[in-house]
Design brief:
Chain A is an alpha+beta fold. Chain A is built from eight helices and five strands. Classes of the chains: A alpha+beta, B mainly alpha.
Chain lengths: 235, 136
Amino acid sequence: MLFSQDPVADFINLSFEPVWESVRPVPIVRIDFGNGSVLTRTLHGNILTSVCTPDGLVVDALPGIYTESGYVAQLNLLCAVARNAQSSPEAKRDMLVRAYHRGQAQALKKMAAPGQKAADQKQLYITKRVIERPIELALLPAQIAGVPQTPAKPALTAAEDVARWKELEEDTRLNERTRRRQIHELLATAGLVLPKQVTHPIYKDVLHADLDDPYLGLGDVLFATYPFAKEDAVH
Amino acid sequence: MKRTLRPQHLSCIGGVAVVGLTTLLLARTFAGGRSPKPPAPQPAMNPAAARAPNVPNGIAIRDYSKSVIEVPTQKVLAARTVPAAPAPGDTFVNPKAQPGKVRWHRDFDVACAAAKKSGKPVLLFQMMGRLDDRFC
């Protein structure tokens, strides 16, 4: 588990005031094979990691699951963005956060790594000796602070561990491309808001898990050929 | 020696004669084909006593009578029957687990209060299920 890894846990304890909360019960599937073997799995669970100001307003969010190194790297960046937002004048804070998200969304749309895009722009502007930084870069750190070293790829031997790692890597890439762009676009519109104002839209539109749907969007799949769906729905 | 009939003997013979005569009369009555006086017609106990149309005689009356008796009973039982509670051991209990090595605050408000003192941002980890459950 992610939070059982020392580098991840130590970094979070050092850099954040952490809290977890459950948005709804997770669906659990149990298959009893009748010979004493029982398979238990969660179904359609998903996570959302938000970084907030001390006032409880969402600065940015990481959707879904990441590799340990990817998670720590992103949290490190978001920690810096949140600190910069908090240190900026309160009247400008919302505008700066919206501009930050616009810039990140545009960078991802062009399929460029956001950090690299920012670095390129900064270099360009330094070369041209422009004094003011573009507003989209205002919240980004000038230098990324050192992060605890987590192995980019742990030493895995079992075939299923390797397969699971590949899935994690793929999830991380998906999160950082498609899902992060969606979150940037959402927060560029919403601005600085409380978590409860964006949790349901993010779960529904980004993570594809509608928290208000009792079947979490799986109703069509579960009841496609079920003959008593209408009767069960009445009761 | 001369035998004489005593009174006890005479009464015994008389009783036998009466019984025999009665038996003879009854036998003649039934053998003659005359049936006993039919019982008075009983009032119908329920509307089902009437023959249902297009139904074999006898079967319909018996079954319809039964259904009139049994249906209300079924309704009574159904209304009074309480759904059985699940037997102990049928409900899945998600075992508890340590939520990692992070020092989690109790809730979001407490984390925000701590953040105002420390100057650190708040990390809000949201999930389905519970982080301190084994299956989450």
